[in-house]
C-alpha cells in the first residue's frame, strides 16, 4: 500500500486498487511515478457527476494527455482508479 498527500489529506492506494488499475488501464503502469504528483499537486480537480464524495485529480503528462486519478474522499481517502485521458471534465470543483 502507498500513501500520498493531497489537498484532501492523506490518500491511500492499496495493492488491490493498483492491480485493478493496471488490469483495466495498463497504460497507467508507465506513469506510476506521476500518481504522487497528480494527487499532491494536481493541475485540475473535478467533482464526480455521480458521487459528491468522489474527486478526479488531473495532471498533464504529455501534450494533450493527462493522468486522471479518481479518489473517494471521506474519513479514509483512497484511490478508486486512474486512467490516461485527453479530456478533462468541464465542470470545476
State the strand order across the main sheet.
3-4-5-6
- Helix coverage percent of residues? 10-25%
* Secondary-structure content class: alpha+beta
- End-to-end Cα distance, whole Å, is 27 Å
Residue windows where pLDDT falls under 50 for at least 5 positions: none
Number of contiguous helices:
2
Outline the biggest β-sheet: 4 strands, antiparallel
Mean pLDDT: 92
Radius of gyration: 12 Å
H/E topology pattern: EEHHEEEE
Which key phrases capture this entry?
93 residues, alpha+beta, four-stranded antiparallel beta sheet, two-stranded antiparallel sheet, 2 helices, 19% helix, globular
Question: If you had to describe this structure to a student in words, what would you say it looks like?
Answer:
The chain is of the alpha+beta class. The protein is built from two helices and six strands, in the order E-E-H-H-E-E-E-E. It has helices spanning 15-24, 33-40, and strands at residues 2-4, 11-13, 44-47, 54-62, 65-72, 78-85. The strands form two sheets. The protein has a four-stranded antiparallel β-sheet with strand order 3-4-5-6. Strands 1-2 form a two-stranded antiparallel sheet. A hairpin with a 6-residue loop joins strand 1 (2-4) and strand 2. The protein is globular, with a radius of gyration of 12 Å. The termini are far apart. 22% of the residues are buried.
Amino acid at each position: 500500500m502507498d500513501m500520498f498527500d493531497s489537498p484532501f489529506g492523506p490518500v491511500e492506494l492499496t495493492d488491490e486498487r493498483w492491480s485493478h488499475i493496471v488490469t483495466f488501464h495498463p497504460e497507467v503502469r508507465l506513469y506510476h511515478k506521476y500518481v504522487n504528483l497528480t494527487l499532491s499537486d494536481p493541475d485540475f480537480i473535478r467533482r464526480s457527476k455521480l458521487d459528491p464524495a468522489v474527486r478526479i485529480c488531473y495532471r498533464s503528462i504529455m501534450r494533450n494527455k493527462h493522468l486522471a486519478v479518481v479518489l473517494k474522499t471521506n474519513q479514509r481517502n483512497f484511490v478508486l482508479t486512474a486512467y490516461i485521458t485527453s479530456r478533462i471534465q468541464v465542470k470545476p470543483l
